[in-house]
C-alpha cells in the first residue's frame, strides 16, 4: 500500500548485479502529476532504481507499490500490461524502432493496447504536432536529427496518456539547446496531461525542470535538501 | 599497402579482446563446419577407390581354364544371405594343401567348422539380436577379418572352413585371390546426376562459408568506425575488415581440419545406408585439399570486400547506403538463363551413350544455382515493398524487411539453393529411374522367397521340402524337382543334338501354380506348352508326347546315355496344357509330373527349387526360412521375390545422394540458426526497449517468425521455379518429356520444416534477449 497521496512508492529496494550492489535499501515516493528528478553520479544506481520502479526488473528485496497494487508481487505479464496501459518511457538515445516511420513509432504503444491503426496514427499525429515534429512523421528514425528523434520518443511516451513517464537521461545525447527544448516539451506535455515524471539525470540544469530532486548515492536514495 | 591493412585487420581480430574473439570464434566455427564437409567431399574419390581396391583384392574369379589342384590351391564357394534387411556375404573354403592362399585380411584359413568374421558380424553374432543368425552360421568363430579384407568397417562378412566342399557341389578352385578388373564405365545419365549432385551439395556449403565470414560483421563495422576517427580512410578500413574475416577463416580452416582428422577416427562406428568407411579411407585428394585451403581464405577476403560495397564506415558510425538503392533485375536474370543455355548446349545424353562434358554441365548448374542466390534479394525486395498493414508483429516484420532485406535474403539463400538443387535432382532422378528399374515379373503376393539348391540329389531335395514346410512362419511351399529329359536314340539327320525338354516333378497344387493344369490328382502327367514364346510347340512335341519314351541321363558332350539308359514312358493319358508364370517370374514348360507318376530317383542331376509363402504375422519368418536353408546346405541360394529390381550403380548413386543431402541440410540448419541469432543479438537493446514499454513477448516472437517466414516462402517459391527449370533442362538433355511433379513437394516441405525447426530453436535465445538487461549501459 502506498503512503497517503503517493502514486508510486518503493521501500528498502535492494538489487545487485553479481557481487556489485546497485541499490542498497533505496526508498522512493512519487505523487500524481509531480516531476521528480533522480540524480547521482554514473554507476550510483539511478537507472536501476528507475527500472525497478517501472517494473522492468524486479528487486532482490524490498517492495514497489503502484496505487493499491504491489508491482513486486505481479507476474511478468501483469507488469507488462501495466507498463502498456499506465507508463511511458523515454531513453537516452530515443530507441525508436528503426524500420518504422516516426508516426508508426509513436502509434506503436497505442496499437499494443489494441487501438485500431488509423485511430492510433491520428492520435499520434496530434502528439507529433504538439512536440513540433509532425514534419518528420513519414520519415524513419535514421533520417531525422537527434533532437527530432528524442521529441518523437517523448511523443511516443505520452501518446498513450500514461500516468507516469519514466525518462532515463532523455537529453544525454543532445546538445544543450535541443536538450532544453526536449525538457520543456516533456514537462509541459506531462503537466498538461497530469502525468507524473521520473526523470533520471546527472545534469543539474535538466533536474531544474523537476518539482523535487532525489539523489542516489551508493545505492541509497535521499531527498535533496532545499529542493522545491 | 593493402597487405599492411589486411595484416592490421588480422591483428585487430587476434588482439581485439573478448568482443573480437567472440566474432572470430563464430566465424571460425562456421567456416570449420564448411571445411569439414568440403574435406569429406574431397575424400570421397579416395573412399570409393579404397573400397574398390579392397573389394577387387578379395574377389575370387574362376579363370578361363580350370586351376589344377595343388598344395597351393583351395576350393571356394561364395554364399550370400541377408539378416533383417542387412546383406551378409561369405565364402566356404577348403584348402587343397598347406600352401593354400588366404583371402586378404585373414591370417590363417579356418578349419572345417570354424569361421573368421568381420568385426561388425562378430558384434552382431554376440548381441541378443544375433541369436537367430547364430543358428544360420553354426561355425566356431576363431578370428576376425582385418581391414585389407573388408570394404568398410560395417561390412557383415565371413569365411568358413568346410570339409565337404567340392567342384561337383558348386565350388571352384583358386590359386590366388584378387582381380585387376576395371569397373564398368559409369552410365552417362548417372554421370550427369553425380556432377549435378556435387554442384547442388557443395554450393550451399560455399554459401554457408560466405555467410560465416560475415558473422558479427555489423559490430565489427561499428568498431572500425572508431578507426576512421583517427584518420583511416574507407579503403583502409575495408581491407582491415577483410583482414579480420581472413583471420577467422584461417582459424576456421585449421579448426575444421583438426576436427575432421579427429572425427574420422570415429567414422567406422557410423554406417549410413549400408556404407561405412575406415578412417584411413577418408583422406582428401591432395589437389582438392589444396584447393580448399586456398579458396576458403580468398573467399573470406572477397566476400567481405564485396559486402562492404554498400556500407560506408564513417567516423561517427556505419551508414548502410544501399537502403535507398533499388536492386536491379537486368544483370541478375541473365545468370541463371545462361546456366540453362549451357546445360542445353551439352546435347542429348541417354543411358547407353552420349557425350558428357562435365565442365559444361557443372558450369551450367553452378550458374543456375548462383543465379537463384542473385535473384532472391531482388524478389524479396520487390515483394516486401508491396506489403503493408496488418497487426503489429506483421508490421514490425515487413517494415524491417523493407528497411533492409539483404541480410534476411542472405540467411535463406543457402536453403533456397539446397532446395532448388534437390528439386532438380529429384525431378531428374525420379524420371530417369524407370531406366534403371527392371520389372522382374516376380509376384510377391504368391510367394515371398525363392530357394534353389546349387545341385541336388533326391534325398537332399526331399529333406529340403520337408524341412521348409515345417519351418516356423511358412504358410505354403511350391516345391519342384527339375531335371532334363531328351528323346531316346541317336541324333537324327539334320539335328545338331537330340531334342530335349525340362521335367518338373511336383504335387498337384504346386503344378497348378506353374501351369493351367485344371483337375489334377497324384499320378497325373502334363505336357506344358511354353506361353512365353521361347520354345515352339513343334520342338516340345519332338520329346514330349503322350505315350512317348524319354531318356533322363544323356551326356550332353557325347550325346550318349551316361551309364545304363534311364528311360520313362509318358502315360497316354498325359494332357497338353498351357504354362503359367511362376511367382518367381519364370515360365516353366515341358513335362510336368506328379510324384505318383514319376519317381525322382530316376532323374539325372536334378535341381531342387522351392518358392515359399510366409506368414506376415511372423516378422522373422524369412529369417527362419534362411536358417532352414543354411542348415540343409550353406550354399543354397535364398532370394527375396520383388516386383522391381534397381540397377546397382543407380542404387549406389542414390545412396550417396542421401548421405550427402543429410550432411548438407544439417549444415544449412546450423548456418540459419547462427545467422538468426546474430540478427537477434544485433537488436538486443531494441528488443529490451520494446519489452520495457510493455510489448508482449509473443508479439516480438511472431514478428521474428514473420521476418523469417516471408523470405523463406519467397525463397522456396524461387527454389521451386529455379529447381524445376534446372530439372527440366537436365531432363531435356536426357530426352525425357514426361515427369512426375509430385516429387518436388517433399523437398519444399523439408525446406519449410527445417526453417520452422530453426525458428523454434531460436525462440529460447530470443526470450532471453528480451530481458531488461539489454537496457543496462553501465
From TrEMBL, chain A:
Keywords: ATP-binding, Nucleotide-binding, Transport. GO terms for molecular function: ATP binding; ATP hydrolysis activity; transmembrane transporter activity. The keyword Transport applies. Transmembrane segments: none annotated. Pfam families: ABC_tran (PF00005). One of its GO terms (cellular component) is plasma membrane. Residues 8-228 form the ABC transporter domain. Gene3D superfamilies: P-loop containing nucleotide triphosphate hydrolases (3.40.50.300). InterPro entries: AAA+_ATPase, ABC_transporter-like_ATP-bd, ABC_transpr_LolD-like, MacB-like_ATP-bd, P-loop_NTPase. This is ABC transporter ATP-binding protein. The lineage of its organism: Bacteria, Bacillati, Actinomycetota, Actinomycetes, Kitasatosporales.
Automatic annotation (TrEMBL), chain B:
Signal peptide: none annotated. Keywords: Cell membrane, Membrane, Transmembrane, Transmembrane helix. It is found in: Cell membrane. It is a multi-pass membrane protein. It comes from the Bacteria. The chain crosses the membrane at residues 21-44, 189-213, 245-267, 287-308, 329-347, 359-387, 408-429, 656-674, 712-731, 743-763. One of its GO terms (cellular component) is plasma membrane. Residues 197-309, 659-771 form the ABC3 transporter permease C-terminal domain. InterPro entries: ABC3_permease_C, Membrane_comp_ABC_pdt. Its main location: membrane. This is ABC transporter permease. It comes from Streptomyces inhibens.
Amino acid at each position: 500500500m502506498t503512503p497517503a497521496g503517493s502514486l508510486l512508492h518503493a521501500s528498502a529496494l535492494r538489487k545487485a548485479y553479481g557481487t556489485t550492489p546497485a541499490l542498497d535499501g533505496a526508498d522512493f515516493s512519487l505523487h500524481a502529476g509531480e516531476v521528480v528528478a533522480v540524480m547521482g553520479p554514473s554507476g550510483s544506481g539511478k537507472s536501476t532504481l528507475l527500472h525497478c520502479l517501472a517494473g522492468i526488473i524486479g528487486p532482490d528485496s524490498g517492495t514497489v507499490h503502484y496505487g493499491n497494487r504491489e508491482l513486486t508481487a505481479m507476474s511478468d505479464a501483469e507488469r507488462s500490461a501495466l507498463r502498456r496501459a499506465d507508463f511511458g518511457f523515454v531513453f537516452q538515445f530515443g530507441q525508436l524502432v528503426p524500420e518504422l516511420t516516426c508516426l508508426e513509432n509513436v502509434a506503436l504503444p497505442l496499437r499494443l493496447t489494441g487501438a485500431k491503426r488509423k485511430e492510433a496514427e491520428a492520435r499520434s499525429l496530434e502528439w507529433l504536432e504538439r512536440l513540433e515534429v509532425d514534419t518528420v512523421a513519414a520519415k524513419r528514425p535514421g533520417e531525422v536529427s537527434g533532437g527530432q528523434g528524442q521529441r518523437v520518443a517523448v511523443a511516443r511516451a505520452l501518446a498513450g496518456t500514461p500516468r507516469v513517464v519514466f525518462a532515463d537521461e532523455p537529453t544525454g545525447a543532445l546538445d544543450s539547446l535541443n536538450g532544453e527544448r526536449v525538457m520543456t516539451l516533456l514537462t509541459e506535455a506531462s503537466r498538461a496531461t497530469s502525468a507524473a515524471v521520473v526523470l533520471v539525470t546527472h545534469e543539474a540544469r535538466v533536474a531544474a525542470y523537476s518539482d523535487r530532486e532525489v539523489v542516489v548515492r551508493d545505492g541509497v536514495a535521499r531527498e535533496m535538501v532545499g529542493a522545491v | 599497402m593493402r597487405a599492411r591493412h589486411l595484416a592490421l585487420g588480422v591483428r585487430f581480430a587476434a588482439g581485439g579482446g573478448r568482443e573480437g574473439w567472440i566474432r572470430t570464434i563464430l566465424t571460425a566455427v562456421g567456416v570449420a563446419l564448411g571445411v569439414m564437409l568440403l574435406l569429406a567431399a574431397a575424400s570421397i574419390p579416395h573412399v570409393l577407390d579404397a573400397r574398390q581396391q579392397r573389394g577387387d583384392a578379395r574377389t575370387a574369379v574362376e579363370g578361363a581354364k580350370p586351376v589344377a589342384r595343388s598344395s597351393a590351391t583351395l576350393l571356394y564357394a561364395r554364399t550370400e544371405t541377408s539378416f533383417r534387411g542387412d546383406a551378409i556375404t561369405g565364402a566356404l573354403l577348403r584348402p587343397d594343401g598347406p600352401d593354400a592362399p588366404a583371402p586378404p585380411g585373414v591370417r590363417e584359413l579356418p578349419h572345417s567348422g570354424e569361421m573368421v568374421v568381420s568385426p561388425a558380424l562378430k558384434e552382431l553374432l554376440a548381441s541378443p539380436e544375433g541369436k537367430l543368425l547364430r543358428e544360420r552360421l553354426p561355425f566356431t568363430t576363431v578370428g576376425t577379418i582385418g581391414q585389407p579384407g573388408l570394404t568398410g568397417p560395417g561390412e557383415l562378412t565371413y569365411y568358413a572352413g568346410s570339409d565337404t566342399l567340392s567342384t561337383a557341389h558348386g565350388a571352384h578352385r583358386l590359386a590366388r585371390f584378387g582381380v585387376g578388373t576395371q569397373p564398368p564405365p559409369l552410365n552417362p545419365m548417372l554421370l550427369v546426376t553425380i556432377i549435378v549432385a556435387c554442384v547442388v551439395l557443395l554450393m550451399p556449403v560455399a554459401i554457408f562459408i560466405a555467410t560465416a565470414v560475415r558473422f558479427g560483421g555489423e559490430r565489427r563495422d561499428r568498431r572500425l568506425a572508431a578507426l576512421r576517427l583517427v584518420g583511416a580512410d574507407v579503403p583502409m578500413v575495408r581491407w582491415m575488415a577483410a583482414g579480420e574475416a581472413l583471420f577467422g577463416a584461417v582459424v576456421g580452416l585449421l579448426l575444421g581440419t583438426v576436427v575432421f582428422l579427429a572425427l574420422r577416427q570415429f567414422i567406422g562406428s557410423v554406417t549410413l545406408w549400408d556404407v561405412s568407411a575406415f578412417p584411413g579411407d577418408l583422406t582428401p585428394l591432395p589437389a582438392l585439399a589444396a584447393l580448399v585451403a586456398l579458396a576458403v581464405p580468398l573467399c573470406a577476403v572477397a566476400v567481405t570486400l564485396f559486402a562492404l560495397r554498400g556500407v560506408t564506415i564513417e567516423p561517427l558510425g556505419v551508414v548502410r547506403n544501399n537502403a535507398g538503392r533499388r536492386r536491379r533485375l537486368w544483370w541478375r536474370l541473365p545468370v541463371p538463363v545462361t546456366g540453362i543455355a549451357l546445360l542445353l548446349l551439352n546435347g542429348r545424353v541417354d543411358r547407353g551413350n552420349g557425350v558428357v562434358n562435365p565442365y559444361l554441365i557443372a558450369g551450367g548448374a553452378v550458374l543456375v544455382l548462383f543465379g537463384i542466390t542473385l535473384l532472391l534479394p531482388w524478389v524479396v525486395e520487390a515483394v516486401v515493398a508491396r506489403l503493408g498493414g496488418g497487426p503489429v508483429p506483421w508490421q514490425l516484420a515487413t517494415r524491417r524487411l523493407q528497411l533492409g532485406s539483404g541480410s534476411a535474403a542472405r540467411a535463406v539463400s543457402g536453403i533456397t539453393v539446397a532446395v532448388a538443387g534437390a528439386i532438380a535432382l529429384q525431378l531428374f532422378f525420379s524420371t530417369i529411374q524407370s531406366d534403371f528399374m527392371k520389372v522382374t515379373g516376380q509376384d510377391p503376393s504368391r510367394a515371398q522367397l525363392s530357394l534353389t539348391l546349387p545341385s541336388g540329389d533326391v534325398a537332399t531335395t526331399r529333406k529340403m521340402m520337408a524341412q521348409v514346410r515345417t519351418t516356423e512362419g511358412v504358410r505354403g511351399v511350391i516345391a519342384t524337382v527339375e531335371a532334363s529329359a531328351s528323346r531316346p536314340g541317336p541324333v537324327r539327320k539334320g539335328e545338331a543334338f537330340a531334342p530335349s525338354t525340362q521335367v518338373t516333378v511336383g504335387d498337384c497344387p504346386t503344378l497348378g501354380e506353374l501351369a493351367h493344369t485344371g483337375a489334377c490328382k497324384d499320378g497325373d502327367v502334363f505336357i506344358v506348352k511354353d506361353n512365353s514364346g521361347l520354345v515352339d510347340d513343334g520342338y516340345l512335341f519332338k520329346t514330349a508326347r503322350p505315350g512317348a519314351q524319354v531318356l533322363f541321363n544323356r551326356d550332353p558332350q557325347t550325346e550318349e546315355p551316361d551309364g545304363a539308359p534311364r528311360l520313362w514312358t509318358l502315360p497316354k493319358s498325359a494332357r497338353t496344357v498351357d504354362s503359367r508364370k511362376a511367382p518367381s517370374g519364370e515360365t516353366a514348360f515341358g513335362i510336368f509330373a506328379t510324384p505318383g507318376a514319376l519317381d525322382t530317383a530316376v532323374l539325372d542331376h536334378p535341381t531342387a527349387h522351392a518358392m515359399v509363402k510366409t506368414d506376415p504375422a511372423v516378422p522373422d519368418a524369412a529369417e527362419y526360412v534362411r536358417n532352414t536353408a543354411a542348415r540343409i546346405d550353406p550354399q543354397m541360394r535364398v532370394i527375396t521375390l520383388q516386383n522391381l529390381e534397381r540397377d546397382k550403380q543407380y542404387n549406389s548413386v542414390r545412396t550417396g545422394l542421401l548421405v550427402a543431402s543429410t550432411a548438407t541440410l544439417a549444415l544449412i540448419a546450423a548456418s540459419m540458426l547462427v545467422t538468426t541469432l546474430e540478427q537477434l543479438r544485433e537488436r538486443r537493446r531494441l528488443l529490451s526497449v520494446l519489452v520495457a514499454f510493455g510489448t508482449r513477448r509473443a508479439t516480438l516472437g511472431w514478428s521474428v517468425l514473420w521476418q523469417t517466414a516471408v523470405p523463406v516462402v519467397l525463397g522456396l517459391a524461387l527454389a521451386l521455379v529455379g529447381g524445376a527449370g534446372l530439372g527440366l533442362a537436365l531432363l531435356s538433355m536426357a530426352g525425357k518429356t514426361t515427369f512426375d511433379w509430385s516429387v518436388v513437394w517433399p523437398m519444399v516441405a523439408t525446406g519449410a520444416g527445417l526453417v520452422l525447426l530453426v525458428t523454434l530453436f531460436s525462440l529460447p535465445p530470443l526470450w532471453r534477449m528480451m530481458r531488461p538487461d539489454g537496457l543496462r549501459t553501465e
